[in-house]
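From the shared-data thread, chain only:
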Amino acid sequence: MFVDCVWQYQHYQRLLLVASSQADLEKYRPLAQKVARYCQRCRMRYEEALGSETYPRRLLEAAVAPDRAGEDFLLIPPGGQIRQEQFLA
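Structure, as tokens:
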């Protein structure tokens, strides 16, 4: 870890810009690269990917209707315990 790496970012390995179109990648790339230059002090690598709204939409739906979240999300209720077995398939 670099001395000037902000402690809350020390365990992150990458910064990923996800956009739904090539136009959005180009639009937000300058700002993302500015952030990436800052994050280099923590040895993060910068990556870009085209994606869709599917995952964020499903995440919001799971928050609204936890009983319909499916197996893609692990929901931990307030005060609930997180155990290693919950992550093993």
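Strands lie at 14-19, 45-50.
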